[in-house]
Every structure is written in C-alpha cells, then in structure tokens.
Amino acid sequence: MIREYIAYKGAAFTIEWYYDSKGASPAFQYYKALNAVERIKLLRLLKRIGDAGEIKDKTKFNYEGDQIYAFKPKPQRFLCFFFTGKKIIMTNAFCKKQQKLLKSDKEKALKYKIDFEKRINHGDYYE
C-alpha cells in the first residue's frame, strides 16, 4: 500500500499525515471523509503555516499543551506536533462539540507522537 505522507510542503514547514504501524492514518481518514469546503478550510491553514511559518490567529491554530497543537478549521480540529527537520505531523482529527479539548483526543495525539518518534528512531517509520 502506498502511503500519502505529505499533506502540504511549503518553504517553512512540511506538514505530514501520521500513520500507525498497521498503515492507518486517523487524521488522513478523517480528512478524506470531509466535503470539499471543509477540506479547503484545512488546506488554507496548512498552506499558511507551511509557507509563512506561523499562524498568529489562535482561533485557527492553537497550542494545546504537552507539545500538541491544533489546526482549527471550524468546526473541525486536527491535532499535530512539530518535529525536527521543519515538519509538522498531523495525528488525529475530530469535529469540535464543546469548548475545551477532550482529554482523550489529546491523549491519542500524545500516544501517536510517542509512536512516531520511536519508529523514526528505529528507522522503520517511512516505507
């Protein structure tokens, strides 16, 4: 199975989809299920941070603690983390239903971050 890792490649950052050891990508699967308008909202945010290196508007991109950030193309949320080599790895996504980020969603992102880093260090993340 060919994996599509890169969501957007800009001058400042490359944004990638996280894949687990079985080849599943929770964020990418969620993205593929969105309609065209919802996809465009996310892609605009990815382009902005990928090209400019930052998004100052906290209603569009926010630090959630524990090295986890969120792209916020309303009403969706795409959790991610920064990685060496000017990479942003998108881990999981969901439709926002309440004001505060659910602990379970953040814990998933942290679990995926740890898995990604471990597999990168072992040299077996990318195909």
Structural write-up:
- By secondary structure, this protein is of the alpha+beta class.
- The chain has helices spanning 26-33, 36-52, 103-122, and strands at 6-9, 14-17, 61-65, 68-71, 76-83, 87-95.
- The protein has a six-stranded mixed sheet.
- It is globular.
Question: Which characteristics define this entry?
Answer:
27% strand; globular; alpha+beta; YaeB-like fold; six-stranded mixed β-sheet; 127 residues
List the helices and strands and how they pair.
Elements lengths: L5 E4 L4 E4 L8 H8 L2 H17 L8 E5 L2 E4 L4 E8 L3 E9 L7 H20 L5
At a glance:
With 127 residues, the chain is α+β, with helices and mostly antiparallel strands.
**Which superfamily, in CATH terms, is the homologous superfamily?**
RelE-like
Spatial arrangement of strands, main beta sheet:
1-2-6-5-4-3
Number of DSSP E strands: 6
Helix amount: 25-40%
Structural class: alpha+beta
Query: What string, H for helix and E for strand, traces the elements in order?
Result: EEHHEEEEH
Gap between N and C termini: 9 Å
Hey, roughly how much beta strand do the residues contain? 25-35%
Largest sheet: 6 strands, mixed
Mean pLDDT: 94
Tell me the domain tally: 1
Large-scale geometry: globular
CATH topology: YaeB-like fold
CATH architecture: 2-Layer Sandwich
- CATH class value: Alpha Beta
Number of helical elements: 3
Estimated radius of gyration: 14 Å
The poorly predicted ranges are none
